[in-house]
Amino acid sequence: MLGARGLPLQELYTDTGGASDHVFGLCHMLGFRFVPRMRDLADRRLGAIAANSTYKGIECLFGQAIKAGAIEAEWDDLIRMAASIREGTVAPSVILRKFSAYRRQNKLDLALRKLGCIERTLFTLEWLEQPELRRACQAGLNKGEARHALADAIYTDRQGRFTDRSLENQQYRASGLNLLIAAIAYWNTLYLGRAADHLRYSGVEIHEALLAHVTPLGWSHIGLTGDYLWEDASSHGDGSYRALHDPRAGSSSLHRMFLICPAYR
User: What is the pTM of this model?
Assistant: First the structure.
């Protein structure tokens, strides 16, 4: 399964509200791991194929036994559904919306939900036993929230909402927003790397593991409002860089150091 930029999708992080059995089952069929933040464990029952009486002492944690035959009977249709989504023939949101619209229980809907119940049960056990999984989920959600906060800051005049009526205009608007987010992330990444090199050149010891916790999605140093003079952008196309703001040295001395230090050429 490939993400929006062609990168292989391995894990999908989401908040508690998105943790449904249908999504668990669909992610399993598509070949990547669904990692939601589980906060309502007391309200969710685990699922098992064996009878609940098999698990002495913890029977109260289990709901109705999962009938594997319901999954096996619809397995071919589950495979076709996953293949259609993978090839882009149909969107996952369309499939889930159709399932929720059925007045009576649909066999394919039941099979996907039971498969998701198995996956949710396995994930819940891992969630309870592995603190590193909970930390990884929280870190993934923080990255998503940081990206959403940057998008909201860029699009502050509309309060983060697209008001265009046509789908084409909405796509243009979203593409422009993504382009600005990518430009800011690229700018920050470039200068964060230069700042780290500057500290190394100055004799400051940097723990490489700490760099993994530095985000390129900050915008407090960027003026998001005002006029954008694109014709002046070519004046900085000679490969030169802006001087870093170092509280221990003036900008002029920093600029001279960048010209001397090979790492800044």
Answer: 0.68
Rounded distance between C-alpha atoms, residue 255 and residue 24, angstroms: 53
Q: For residue 179, what are the domain limits?
A: 166-264
Let me know: does 48 contact 119? Beta carbons within 8 Å. no
- pLDDT digit string, tens, across residues 57-100: 888 888 888 888 889 999 999 999 999 888 888 888 888 788 77
The partner residues of 198 in beta bridges, in order of sequence, read: none
3-state secondary structure the chain: CECCCCCECCEEEECHHHCCHHHHHHHHHHCCEEEECCCCHHHCCECCCCCHHHCCCCHHHECCCCCHHHHHHCHHHHHHHHHHHHCCCCCHHHHHHHHHHCCCCCHHHHHHHHHHHHHHHHHHHHHHHCHHHHHHHHHHHHHHHHHHHHHHHHCHHHCCCCCCCCHHHHHHHHHHHHHHHHHHHHHHHHHHHHHHHHHHHCCCCCCHHHHCCCCCCCCCCCCCCCCCCHHHHHHHCCCCCCCCCCCCCCHHHHHHHHHHCHHHC
122, 22: one domain: yes
d(CA 120, CA 24): 6
According to DSSP, the residues that pair with 36 across neighbouring strands are: 14
Report the number of distinct structural domains present in the chain: 2
Nearest to 33 by CA among 12, 19, 56: 12
The contacts found for 5-11 with CB under 8 angstroms, 24 or more apart, are 11/35, 11/140
